[in-house]
Amino acid sequence: MSHVTSSSPARSPLGLENRSFIWQLGAVVFGTAFLALSSQISVPMIPVPVTMQTFAVCLIGAVYGPRLGAITICAWLIEGAAGLPVFASGTGGLARFLGSTGGYLLAFPIAGAVTGWLVAKGWNGQRMLLAFAAMMIGHAICLGVGAAWLATQIGISAALIHGVVPFLVGSVLKSALGAAALKLIPASKAASA
Questions:
Q1: What is the DSSP string of 77-96?
Q2: Whole-model pTM?
């Protein structure tokens, strides 16, 4: 049985933290493209659309590890802030950070890092309930920070009704999908990388 002890370093499923800079750079490029594509899978809603962004954020954190996962998500946010059409509905620009979606965007690196840290600590695909819980915690961070920002614009009650409740079922489904994806990555890869 594989577990992490205090004397062994926590590792991501792919072991990217032990790869060369070129490998890690390639992973960041691939991850930002994956996030951009996931952002285009969208159901328009007001004030915040339902997308596959949170699935991608949590999965990148889980697979890349907390540090490289957060770096990848931040790189994607920088691309979007620079105006590249990497956000939902092919949008980009600084206005996205100031509008109703700003809190969700700013929560993404935190959610990815926390999910990655939990997975590296053993909440991985070999322990499906813990992997699901890690994904749910990542989604909860996105919803919590996003709703807190949204509340400054439309009030607490409206932020909960429009910025949390519609996303609860999707968060559960995306967390289950993320845990299932982690199941496909053998735990032994981290140790051999």
A1: HHHHHTT-S-BGGGB-STHH
A2: 0.87
